[in-house]
Amino acid sequence: MKATIIGAGRLVLPNPCVARARGWEHGLPLEAKVRIDLSALGPPGTIAEVGRLCVLERWRAKTSALPELCVAMCQESRRHGVTHWISAANLECDSVDEARLLHEVIQRRGLMRSDIPVSLRATDTPRSPPRFRFYTDEERGRAIAGELSGLRLPRAVSTDAKLGARYVGEPIWDEHFGMFAQPLVAAVQDVMTAAERYLRALERAQGRM
User: Fold this and answer.
1) Positions of the chain with pLDDT under 50
2) What pLDDT, on the 0 to 100 scale, is given for residue 208?
3) Distance CA 62, CA 69 (A)
4) Domains delineated in the chain
5) How is 96-114 classified by DSSP, letter by letter?
C-alpha cells in the first residue's frame, strides 16, 4: 500500500555561521525582517524557527494529523536542544489597515506578549492596492464602532494560539506569500503539552462513538 503524505512542516535550526555573517542572533530566516530578543528565554542555540505547517484539508478537522505533526516537530526540536520557536502566522490580508486591526483584535484576546523586545529590521509594504481582506464590511463596521470582542481571527492565528504560541511585535509584510503575518514565540514544552492534550481528548471522543 502506497503511503500518502497528509501533512508537513519546516523546522529551521539555529545557524551560527549565518548569524555571524548577517549580524543576527540565531541565523534564522525570520530575522531578515524582525529582531526578537529571546535572551531571557535561552541562548541562541536553543531557538529555532517553524513554518510551512500544512495539513490536507480533509484531515484538518477532528483528526490527529496536526497535533501528531506538532509532537513530531517538538521531539525533533528536543533532540537538537531547542526549547523555543519563533515564527509568523498568516493574517490572510494584504491591507495595512486590516493588518493593524487584526493586531488590535489579537491584543484584545490577550494573546500578545509585551515582555519580549521586538524591532523591525525591514519595513516592507505592499506594492499594489489591497486585494485580500480578512473581515467583511459588516465586521469592519463593528470594528469602527469599537466592537472588537466578537471578531474572528485567521485560522493560523487561532490554531497557533491554541498550541501555546503568543504573539509579539507588529505585523510584517511577507512578499513571498503576498500577505501580512504576525510574529510569534512558542515554548516547545507548551506546544507539546497542548498537542498531547488534544490527542487525549480526541481519543476519548472517539471512544464514546
Assistant:
1) none
2) 65
3) 14
4) 7-90+112-123+155-173+181-204 (3.40.630)
5) HHHHHHHHHHHHHTT-B-S
